[in-house]
Design goal:
4 strands, 13% strand, single chain, alpha+beta
């Protein structure tokens, strides 16, 4: 979800650049123009149920940071899945 928000924000940034018609059409093919958003319209919070905290997810030039609680756990999950695929290859 965070990655798709990043895509919508980047598309909004590009749309704000007053693209020529041909580039605007290409942008619309990638991200429908009705779906783009600006960084000023987005605030993302992450919850940590173990610590009991809610914090604002940092960003880089308006794009949500990839350094977040969810991504860290997705990385662990992906590594575990890779290990399962390696095990499957040995069958």
């Amino acid at each position: 979800l965070i990655n798709y928000l990043s895509i919508a924000i980047q598309a909004g940034y590009l749309r704000s650049k007053k693209l020529p018609n041909n580039l605007s059409k290409r942008l619309n093919n990638i991200v429908p123009l009705k779906s783009v958003i600006t960084a000023d319209d987005v605030v993302i919070y992450q919850l940590d149920e173990k610590k009991g905290t809610i914090s604002n997810l940092s960003d880089y030039e308006g794009i949500p940071s990839s350094e977040n609680y969810l991504n860290k756990h997705l990385k662990v999950g992906n590594e575990l899945f890779d290990k399962l695929l390696e095990l499957e290859e040995e069958l």
